[in-house]
Automatic annotation (TrEMBL):
Low complexity bias (residue ranges): 8-21, 98-108
Protein name: Uncharacterized protein
Region (Disordered): 1-44, 73-122
Bias-annotated ranges (Basic and acidic residues): 109-119
Transmembrane segments: 50-71
Biased amino acid composition, Polar residues: 83-95
Protein species of origin: Rhodococcus opacus M213
Lineage: Bacteria, Bacillati, Actinomycetota, Actinomycetes, Mycobacteriales
Assigned keywords, A-Z: Membrane, Transmembrane, Transmembrane helix
């Protein structure tokens, strides 16, 4: 029952209540009714996907055409490849028996020419070795040394540089062989023939030789020498000057006496 002392509030929403707009505000839109998760959903509006599908198909087509063009470029032979293939085909073709025989004959001829050239070179080497061996052997053969007249010997002593290498038999008298000259050379007065007296040897000469060869030689000895002309030689004198004399290299030497 109603209390007459408390008037009843009007039913329904009143302006200014919680959740209700105040006076002068527009009313809020009604809320959607709550739908439970298990309730069937209304079908969505169909989406417009066809532009994406068409664009993808177009992109795949362009990519396929590009790959095909690249493969075609690789597969197409260039002019150099064509020429090389043609050369290879010519080289790999089967040769006729006549061509095989001609090729073998050419190879055999080249082989023979090479062997002939090698034989010639070896023959030249052997000839040079034989020549040098003969020269070396002749150095120790006393019969290969020249015996000169006094005049011819004087011409050699006058210009020894022009007579380098000549092999001579020389006679002499040793005038100096000491610590000043050293153990491998001495001074001697020489002639083309043996003399009875030391003062008759009148060509001042420097004679060189190996130490073993000259070990038994001393100043004052008379010697018979088998020599090669070495040219001229300049040395200092005891007076402070210089003198140039013939130089001989003794290969064999005999001491025949002493003064």
């Amino acid at each position: 029952m109603t209390n007459p002392f408390y008037p009843q509030r009007p039913q329904g929403s009143q302006p200014g209540q919680l959740g209700q707009p105040t006076a002068g505000q527009s009313p809020k839109p009604p809320k959607k009714p709550f739908t439970p998760p298990w309730a069937p959903r209304e079908p969505d509006a169909p989406k417009r996907n066809w532009p994406w599908i068409v664009g993808g198909i177009f992109a795949v087509l362009i990519l396929t055409l590009g790959v095909a063009a690249t493969v075609n470029d690789y597969d197409s032979p260039s002019a150099a490849d064509t020429a090389r293939n043609s050369t290879t085909a010519r080289l790999t073709r089967t040769m006729t028996p006549e061509e095989v025989a001609a090729r073998n004959a050419q190879q055999e001829q080249a082989r023979r020419q090479q062997e002939e050239q090698q034989a010639k070179r070896q023959a030249a080497i052997n000839a040079e070795k034989a020549r040098l061996a003969a020269i070396e052997a002749a150095k120790w053969d006393r019969a290969t040394y020249e015996t000169l007249s006094d005049r011819d010997f004087a011409l050699v002593m006058k210009n020894p540089d022009a007579n380098k290498g000549r092999k001579l038999v020389v006679y002499g008298h040793v005038t100096q062989f000491d610590s000043v000259t050293g153990p491998d050379r001495f001074r001697a007065d020489t002639m083309a023939a043996p003399q009875d007296y030391s003062f008759l040897y009148d060509n001042n000469t420097v004679v060189t030789g190996t130490v073993p060869l000259l070990t038994n030689v001393v100043s004052g000895d008379f010697v018979t020498m088998y020599v090669e002309v070495s040219g001229s030689h300049t040395y200092s004198t005891t007076l402070g000057g210089e003198t140039t004399v013939p130089k001989l290299n003794a290969l064999m030497l005999d001491v025949t006496g002493s003064s």
